[in-house]
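Record type: monomer structure entry
Structure origin: computed from sequence
Chain ID: A
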Amino acid sequence: MTSPIRVLLVDDHAMLRAGFRTILDSQPDIEVVGEASTGAEAVAQASALKPDVISMDVQMPDMDGIEATRRIVADPDVHAAIAIVTTFDRDDYLFSALYAGAGGFLLKNSSPEDLVAAVRVLAAGDGMLAPEVTRRVVQRYAAGAPGAQSAAAASAPPALSDPLTDREAEVLTLMAEAMSNAEIATTLYIGEATVKTHVSRILQKLGARDRVQAVVRALRGGLA
């Protein structure tokens, strides 16, 4: 039997955490293993509980969710995927979260089904961005917008461990257009299993944790 996906909930509103817990604990393959109300508590709980996925608020006392994400991602003993779940649909939060290492960005007015799907997708090693959010990332880079430039300035473009093949470059470009594996397979007339293999190699070459981070690094390095 497969172990349930272990989730840590981080939000300074107890009622919201209770709602998220009710939604997630109702799923047979998901288990909420802990809660935190501040960024500092999140860092400590992540280290102690080793969750698979963390639902992270942004605005919290003590330490915000962006800084907490950055510290958790930097911990070599923690391998949790982090979804930023916020009320505020702001580009500064979006870009800061992605560069801190978050693998997802979700708004609190999303449906319960979206929250459950995000947990499962992140646990599977994929990123979770709504297509319109991914398009905003691409558009801001394409336009050279200040928000994208300032975020990119935080670190240099990644050095590839091995150059991308022509096919991998095609797949990466379609990933940057928010296409799923199935959509990429249809567009390139190849099997979905082949797409998964290409995606896996792209993540390895870019040193990325998930699809979202791969797209961000590719945009930063001018690869997509």
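Annotation 1: The two ends are 40 Å apart (CA to CA).
Annotation 2: The first helix runs from residue 14 to 25.
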